[in-house]
Specification:
Layout lengths: L23 H10 L10 H6 L9 H16 L7
Protein name: Acyl dehydratase
InterPro entries: HotDog_dom_sf
């Protein structure tokens, strides 16, 4: 039996919230593949010296996760333009 595809979103329908938690390894790897060598993304001690409570998640990683979730929520055949 195959899983039924979710219904396509309707205009005005709200995407349900989703929480994300990124590991330090994921932040380090994303920094590597995006050529972002700033230490605030993988070195907690350095991030603290810059005034942050912990390592900082890259805005591009937030965007990637948001885009991926939007496409997943919109269903098969969806695309971002």
């Amino acid at each position: 039996m195959t899983a039924k595809a979710p219904a396509a979103p309707v205009a005005g329908q709200v995407c349900p919230p989703r929480a994300y938690s990124h590991s330090r390894v994921q932040l380090f790897r994303f920094s590597a593949v995006s050529w972002n060598a700033h230490r605030i993304h993988y070195d907690a001690e350095f991030a603290a010296s810059e005034g942050f409570a912990d390592v900082v998640v890259q805005s591009t990683l937030h965007g990637e996760m948001l885009g991926r979730y939007a496409l997943e929520w919109a269903g098969p055949g969806a695309r971002l333009t």
